[in-house]
Amino acid sequence: MRNSSQRLLSACCSVLLLAVVALLTCAPVRADDLPFAQQVDLTPLDRVAVFSEGRLKSFSSFANQQMQFVTGPRKIGGQGSDFTYFDLLFRGNAYEDADVIYVKNREVRARISEAALRADPALTERLRAFEASGLVSQKILNLPPVRTELQTMEGDLIRTAKEMDSIKGALSVKDPSFLLGSLRVIPPADGSLDKPWVSIGDIMLLGADPATLPAAARDRPMNAVPGIDEAKQRQLAADWRGFVMAWQQGDATAVNTRVKAIATLLPTLVPSIYPPAERLEWEGWYFRNDNLSRSWLVFLGAIVFLLLGLVYRWKRATQIGMGVFAMAFLLQTFAVMLRWYISGRWPNSNMFEAVTTAAWMGTAVAFIAEVTFLRRTAMHGVVALGACVTSMVALMAAHFLPVQLNSNISNMMPVLHDVWLYIHTNVIIFSYALIFMSSISAFCYLVWRMRGGGLAFARVGGAGQAMEMMAAAGSGAAGAASGGAVSKTAHHRATGVGEVFDGVTMLLTELSFVMLWAGIVMGAIWADHSWGRPWGWDPKEVFALNTFIIFALLIHVRWKVRDKGLWTAILAVAGAAVMLFNWIVINFVISGLHSYA
Amino acid sequence: MQPSTFRYLSIAMHSLIRPILDLFSSVRFGIVLLALLFAYMSVGSAGILYPIHPNIFHPDAWVHAQMRQWRPFEMTEFEWFHWWPFDVLMALIALTLVTTTVRRIPLRVVNLGVWMIHSGIIMLIVGSVIYFGTKVEGEAPVVRRTVTIGITAKDGPASELIATGTIVAMPGSKLTVGQGADRYDVEVQSIDPSWELRSGADIGKRAYSVNLMITAPDRRFMRQVIAGYPEYTEDLIFTQDKAQPVKRAVKETGKPIIDTRLFVALDYCPQTDFYLKNDLEKSWALYVRRPGETRWVERPVIGLPLYNDYVPDLNEVFLGPAESAEPRSLRVMIPAAAADDPAPGVVFEATGYLRYGQMRTRLIPGGTDAAPNAVAAVDVSDSEGRSAQYRLIASDPQKRSADGGVLAIRQISDEEQLAPLLAQPTLVFRVPSRNITLTESVKDAALTDKDAQWRPIGPVDSGYAYRVVAVQDDLAIGGRELSVAILELRTPAGEFRRWTFSDATMSRDLAPGEDPMAAMKRGGESFTDKSLEVEYRPGNGLALALLVAGPEAGRLRLVDSLGRPEARVVDVTPRIPVELAAGVKLTVTDWMPNAMQESKPFVVPQSQRQRDARELFSMMRVNQVLPAKAAAAPTAPGAASASTAEWLTYHPYVFDRAQDVLRRYWLTPSTITLADGTALEVLFSRQREPLPAPVALETFELTTEVGGFSGQSSSIRNYTSVVRFQEAGGTWGAPERLSVNEPVEFDGMSFFQSQWDPPEEARQGGMASAGLNYTVLGVGNRHGVWVQLIGCIVACLGMMYAFYVKPVIKRRNERLVLEEIARAKAEGRRPSFAKHHTESVHA
């Protein structure tokens, strides 16, 4: 009987696993009303480098970044950013009254919508959609009452001026002449690293017959960039013009041919400083696939199995869960390493990188601990569960909050160019990941207590408990010859789940305690030579120390009280809350010296 | 003393000290202290959140506030964290740590970890007391070069300078050296931070180069000076050649220097002081000096607030619309502090403070005895319902006309002044040699564009032609108001530009590229071609609708020449429209015949304050304390001396002279008339302290990312100041590179890269700057930092020991105990243990 139900569960789990994998691999569904958009293949442009803000980016990551200024986290009509970029550039008029400008602040949306309604009551439906999605058209923003409202909001430097700046930014980026001018794809002729790249717009009329050009274009300069093979430039200009024409006529086949030609020609102009094609292609791939943040689904899968294993003491589920966890970890490792390779530096310099790298570090430690010393102990699976939840939350944040966690790769501020960036930041974010993980097992402990668990706690602390359990597991493996040793399952039952949860909480808390302290001290060492003082009472510093104080309280309270497990769990969750407060509220609301990202 | 008394005393002492010791060795007490520390730090750093509405579930019901900035506190973060409650808390924590550790935790191998943690934290606290007890921190702006100017007497020896002066090398800074026939006006025209040397042995090297515009008694020219290469100093002269208006003098005359009377050199501009920040603590200061002196003397202002506004009398300030405020008094004494104070007996008091204010001038109706000054609000609308509003001020040349001069206002004091205003502006051309006279109305010509058609003067083949480039009325030159017609003339002598003034003696021809203002001042020949004479009669100028106020008080008329060959005069009544041609209506909506200017600080509303401006727009109200009157009216502080109170604007840095002011900063001292009738100049700034040695800026370098500096900060990788410190004996030490994250230490002080001088477009008539003319260094000491660090490391090692070594020791001891029990059982004896084994097992 039991066997058949297990088989059923097992089958269900396999189906679930397959569904997760399928979700990951299938491409996002696109709107069907734009056949042209689907036929156009812009992937060859991944090999093209665009110079932007002191960096050389792959075209699709560049387009992604530029379009974020306009459409925010939204995608227009299911199109990729690269498609939208060209469509705005070549068919700008079509977007005059299209809802493509993203307004983040809900209060600002409401005010714009109210003003627009005064001008044109027929807009009711559209404005309702705007208030939900945040997307509005240039035409609506240009309605006289809306303009007046925008001006009023511009004057309020505290509440709305920033939002107005981003609306103005969106309008200027959306402008075709800006989009064309930003396409700086032609390297400086001498291969110098100190000179800016030139826009395709500067040479696009080379060799064109003036008679065929629209009147506005006739006055544009038609000089080739000196020092670069002029024949190639003429060829490039001709391909570009063909590309524009084909796009405007909706001829996808011609577009694809031209795109290939342009992508082949551009890297040959000044090969000496052109970034390697593999890097650019990986960069394009990485951004087109949402920075691989969708792998949160794999972590979700692992969580399901690990929980099944934990709740039903079902070994097979734990094994599958560990397998999925390993897969997720590999995916995550690949994402972090790929980002490292693309940006040329360890990813820890903005909010997105801090969150994803922290999660990866937590997962890595959990993975190593699970496959080495925790494998045969009762703690097996619990640390992995904490890591899975941590990574899932981090990747979900990266996936669903692309505005707050901006994934664009940009240059670091001069003050960040220091070896201590890599030491201090990583130690701190690692400790934060551990804190979050420990709060998961603490949460599990609290749930266990609420469901009637007894007054259990790890008698010898986290690391001590782990050592004891390892020893117990070791002697268990040595055989029942000694007689006195208990088998693993028996030991598990005797100590209870509560002791395991408390042990894991303490194991992670102890490590995070040391790491957080070390991280704060390393930050102080950096600040001493960077800001001129080791400690500046900056809000972020203060709340890192506050987090530490919570854990200092935890250790001393644990020393004093009788119900050690319960108080440990409560304070571990409180510590995680203070850590998250530091990460979210202090970063986004109360800015200080640490506001780099 | 009786032995029993001693015993009682001892018991009493014990009963008194024991509870205290017990309290301080109680873990519970420690937990309470830690919780208090958590709360104190949270409130000081993140602030507090409190409801202002009973519906606490609505987000708008909550207000966030930084409690430390409230009026009773007015504390910076540092001040909050060095306030006595914090100090007491830290002292209690230290005491508890020491007592608990010593009394409750036996010093054994197992407990080594906790001992290390606790003693590490004690060390950290001691180190921090040393560090923050002695900390000074500030900023020192250092200019790259100063320009030293000297002139010798005409025909005098080259070694004898008759006049000298210095200015900072920064575009727009200027100085006049010498007088009369020896007068030289020197102005820094431009700067190139990395000028490439084009000749000599150093060809290809790059150096800091300064171009000076020199107006000598007899000519104007440019002089280029290059830092580090005085031998390459050379003059540049203006030519009539359009293709190359500026040429190297050496190419034209064979000599690099055309004016040997003028000596110019670039020198270091050493900084001797640094300015304290309103950070570790508030560091306000009032600087005073007698008029005519250059050196400022500092008076610290202790106790002035920082975050909130204090205005004793709301009539003294402008408030934004819909803003309200309560009067609040403030009284901070500012006595003389330095021995060399120019007015040691004079005590000032700060009686007001604004966190964010701006001096604003508004016009208010003056009384009947006020000087006539017409101000009119005008509404012009057309037949299609479009309208525009203007405000015209007769006394302000900038605001006297609108829409390019089409609409204007004039004040007349005599009826006779009206007649010329009715006339059209005309140009009269005369070529006496050819007997040509041409009178042309400018009105239609002036409204055409720059690329206007050439119009012949006389017959088409006369060889003379003109076109109007621009016409400008109300030009203020040398205290007079003039009108000018800028013409391009074509004569047999060539093509040139002539500025024809309403005062013909001012008219002159300009060399290509010549600065008109400088041309006005230059002597020598005024005209390129004297055969053509031009006269400009401005009449009513460009104005198609000219409001005329006066001569009687309250009279307002309109001279209307829109679409009519002859102007007409209409009386204007406020708020009644006047019909002009083509459906255009003009309405004077409001007007003041005798407007007066009133300057007051404007309290900028919270919503319009720049977030990162800090105290940059602060203002302080000061007045002299008058002992006798203050004693007579003790209840009204400040009231007795209100008439002499001044609102002072904040200066981040104190400059001695206008020639020393850095770009983006200012020098606007106020003059206060003291009770004894003498005057004193005052300046509101912050305290400064001497640097360990003067520091000079050799060069400033910008390192960029791929693609060079784009104007955006994202393209910058690093900023580097190369500085030199002055050593004993006045010699300059070796250059030291100082950049972000890489400070330089000198004599116990660390120097950091703090701010820079970015390139800047010209604005408001100023000059553009290529930037990099100065750096701002952060300066600070760091006593006790090693004690802090060692404490932290010891604590960190202790944590590792406690978490990872202690369990191993405990497990080993436990095993030893179990083994001993088993052994004893086998041998049939009582087990015996080493004491520390059992202790740690039971711990």
Describe, in plain words, how this protein is organized in 3D:
The complex is a heterodimer of chains A (597) and B (843). With 597 residues, chain A is an all-alpha fold. Chain A folds into four domains: 35-49 and 178-276, no CATH class; 66-173, no CATH class; 289-403; 412-478 and 485-597, no CATH class. Helix content of chain A is 65%, strand content 3%. In chain A, the strands form three sheets. In chain A, strands 1-2 form a two-stranded antiparallel sheet. In chain A, a hairpin with a 2-residue loop joins strand 1 (49-52) and strand 2 (55-58). In chain A, helix 3 (59-71) runs parallel beside helix 14 and helix 5 runs antiparallel to helix 8. Chain A is elongated and about 90 Å long. With 843 residues, chain B is α+β, with helices and mostly antiparallel strands. Chain B has six domains: 3-104, no CATH class; 142-271, no CATH class; 284-363 and 597-686, no CATH class; 372-420 and 543-593, no CATH class; 425-537; 797-842. Helices cover 20% and strands 35% of the residues of chain B. In chain B, strands 3, 4, 11, 12, 41, 42, 43, 44, 45 and 46 form a ten-stranded antiparallel beta sheet that branches. Chain B has a six-stranded antiparallel beta sheet with strand order 5-6-7-8-9-10. In chain B, strands 21-22-31-32-33 form a five-stranded mixed beta sheet. In chain B, helix 2 runs antiparallel to helix 4 and helix 4 runs antiparallel to helix 5 (112-134). The radius of gyration of chain B is 38 Å and the shape is elongated. Chain B starts with a helix and ends with a helix. Mean pLDDT of chain B is 87; it is low at 630-643. Chains A and B meet through helix 20, helix 21, helix 22 and helix 23 of A and helix 2, helix 3, strand 42, strand 46 and helix 11 of B.
